[in-house]
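To: structure desk
From: M.T.
Subject: fold request, one chain
Message: Could you run this one when you get a chance? Sequence is below, nothing fancy, just the single chain.
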Amino acid sequence: MSQYRELKNEPAASVDRVRELEAELKEMRRQLQEKDHQLTDAQEELAIVKKAVHIFSKPRN
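Reply: Done. Structure tokens follow.
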């Protein structure tokens, strides 16, 4: 009976379920790392745009 249980809130009892959860965790960590890289890139781009706006908004003499 325990072999066919699919309740997500129960503790992982089988080796297969533990492996499945470890693979899911690894994928989630990879996705999080990718999102962190994207966020860092976006922050750098925003800083560049802010500097460009500041430079080009200065009045010319």
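Reply (cont.): The helical segments are 15-56. Let me know if you need anything else for the meeting.
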